[in-house]
Amino acid sequence: MSTYYITTPIYYVNDRPHIGHCYTTLLADVAARFQRLRHGSPDDVFFLTGTDEHAEKVVQSASDNGMSPIQWADRNADEFRKAFGAMDFTNDDFVRTTEDRHKTKASAYIQQLVDSGDIELGDYEGWWDASQEEYVPENTAREHDYKSPVTGRELEKRTEQNYFFRLDKYESWLREQIESDTIRVLPGARKNEVLGRIRQGLQKVPVSRKIKEGDTDWGIRMPNDPEHRIYVWIEALCNYLTTVDTDERERFWPADVHVMAKDILWFHAVIWPAMLKALDRPAPKTVYAHAYWIREGRKMSKSLGNFIEIELLEAYCKKYSTDAVRWYLLTQGPLGANDADFAHEHFVEMYNADLANSVGNSMSRVGNMIDKYLGGELTMLCNGEFGFPGGSALQTARTALANAGKPVDDPDRTFHFPEITKAAVERAIASADAFEVDEMARQGLAVVRAVDEFISYAAPFTLAKQLDELEDGTHALATILYSCAESLRIASLLLAPAMPTKMGELWARWGCAPSAGVPLADLAEFGGAHKLKKGQRITKGDALFMRADVKEEPPVASTD
Ligand code: MSP
Question: 517 CA to middle of ligand 1, Å?
Fold first, then answer.
């Protein structure tokens, strides 16, 4: 049985959860939900997120807040857990790098690399900023005329012994893996950047820091040499493996997708696969780096204080529903190579266009028509073909339009719902494979739009007024409405990974929750074994998404 393992970066426990963290984790959540549905076997999917806790700055901010580093980390890891709960994420685990399960295995991997000669002791030469107790990279030192960028104090050239990972040994292997897409680096523009940099040559990378007097005991020590601490990035990357390196979970390795933003692609596409090669483990199959969210046209930054933090997202969730926020982030976000702008007006515009006026309207309209015209029960099955020779329902609808003096746009028009829905499902699966999860979700919207077009064309409300006059009017009406409902049921399957709550509401009203253990291709077959059945009660209900008014004040973050 094939498995699917998807990960997000583990987030610095020092930051407050914001739109960037939520966005990457949302992409992974939507992908994981889709794969669970696709395979019909949720246990074969594993979705991991978590927090990266051993950074030096944790020690500093803990002390600024009068807490020990672990207290501070506990508190902030909880913030991430809560934020991800508020966004309805379904991660299967939440790893923290301060947990023993991570620390012991990360140490063991490092020891293995020391034993194999992939990690070795060497001299590190750099510009030491004594006032800040840190090394300043060569280009930053040069830019500041070899003075501290923070205090202006003279930098000193220092050499210290460090452990290094022999990344240089893996240069040609990495090139070959990435060029051949054995390790797929996506999107394509990012793959070219990574290859360009690899072609300039790879150097050894430092993987430890010598512990200095007065240092706290934060971090993981080099197993062979406790005078050194493992550089936080190196052990953090190991989380993807430490979490599934158990008897029950090893079947998930290698990861299918590591998803992140472009800032940390190098670590994931180059350093991590090389470490895995050195550990004699398979490399991840796909590394996907999206672009950034910006806000109302400006970069989000601490100094501008304009980050969209979780509290603001929660205010949007409260006003427009969590599913609406998930939909907006997913479909309007920086998937691909271009940055995306979070702007309130754009949010409202997309909310109305996609959700209030399309998905929500179509679903409640069809439910209401079944309630009103068919007594709330599907009285007919049909094969979803309209306008073909032998198919009479659409002809009856056209007659009703003619009787009412309304023009028929194109008298030869046909609608072929089994094909429309099948093509949408196939495109969704292909998009998911390319990690175009926004396109995947849009396939559900495409089916909704096809149903809307059919309703406008066939005008069942016009037909409904002539049931006494038209001999086969009731039959035609029931056939048309069945087809709409059955197509929307299939649309709801494709929309559910993005909007699980609203689609769950629809399933409750229409009695069509997908059966467990059945793969998507079977669930989504028009008129197949899992179709809406004849006699199924359809409960009408409120609009799934209320229309929004752009003139209303945008939500504000609550300060409780
Ligand atoms: N701890 C490291 C990752 C270690 S993984 C082994 C780290 N943490 S982070 O908290 O800074 O998170 C960076 C990630 O947050 C980005 O790669 C991206 O997934 C997400 N984002 C942070 N800001 C973002 C935007 N403005 N826009 C989109 N995503 C962004 O780096």
Answer: 35
Provide Rg for the chain, Cα atoms: 28
Ligand 1 proximal residues by C-beta, below 6 Å: 9-12, 15, 20-21, 23-24, 52, 236-237, 239, 260-261, 263-264, 292-293, 300, 334
Spans in the chain with pLDDT lower than 70: 1, 133, 560
Angle, nearest 10°, between helix axes 361-374 and 473-495?
150
Atom of ligand 1 nearest to the CA of 272: 6
Q: Which two structure tokens, joined as six digits, stand for 555?
A: 């939500």
The burial of 348, by beta-carbon neighbours within 10 Å (0-12 exposed, 13-18 middle, 19 or more buried), is given as buried
CA of 21 to the centre of ligand 1 (A): 6
Q: How far apart are CA 301 and CA 536, in angstroms?
A: 53
- Centroid of ligand 1 to alpha carbon of 13 (angstroms): 11
Nearest C-alpha neighbor of 448 from the set 325, 363, 351: 363
Strand partners, 209: 229
Cis peptide before 555 (omega within 30 of 0): no
Domain ranges across the chain: 354-523
**CB under 8 Å to 73, separation ≥6 — which residues?**
13, 51, 53, 58, 62, 96, 98
Distance from residue 222's CA to the centre of ligand 1 (Å): 26
Q: In angstroms, what is the span from residue 24 Cα to ligand 1's centroid?
A: 8
Distance, CA 262 to ligand 1 centroid (Å)? 9
pLDDT for 560: 61
Question: Which numbered atom of ligand 1 lies nearest the CA of 52?
Answer: 1
Q: Which CATH superfamily is domain 354-523 in?
A: Isoleucyl-tRNA Synthetase; Domain 1 (1.10.730.10)
Spatial distance between the Cα atoms of 45 and 177, rounded to a whole number of angstroms = 25
Taking only the tens place, the pLDDT of each residue in 498-542 is: 999 999 999 999 999 999 999 999 999 999 999 999 999 999 999
Amino acid, single-letter form, for residue 112: Q
Which protein residue's CA is at the shortest distance from atom 18 of ligand 1?
261
b/e for 437-465, b at 16 or more Cβ within 10 A? bbbbbbbbbbbbbbbbebbebbbbeebbe
Find the helix packing angle between 310-320 and 322-332, rounded to 10°: 120
- Let me know if 180 is exposed, middle or buried by CB neighbors in 10 A (0-12, 13-18, 19+): exposed
